Amino acid sequence: MRIVVCVKEVLDPDAVNALVLTGQLSIGPDGKTIEEGAITRVINGYDEQAIEAALRLRDAGVDCQIIAVSVGEDPINVLRYALALGADEIVSIPARDLDCLGVARVIAEYIRSSGGADLVLCGRQASDDDQGIVGPALAELLGIPVALSARALSIEPDGAGDGPALHVTVVTPYGEEVWELPLPAVVTITSELGQPRYPPAARAIKARRAMPQVVTPEELGLGPGDLEPRVVLERLRVVQVEGHCQMISGDGADDTAAKLLEVLQRDGLVKL
Question: According to the model, what pLDDT value does residue 103 have?
Answer without folding.
Answer: 95
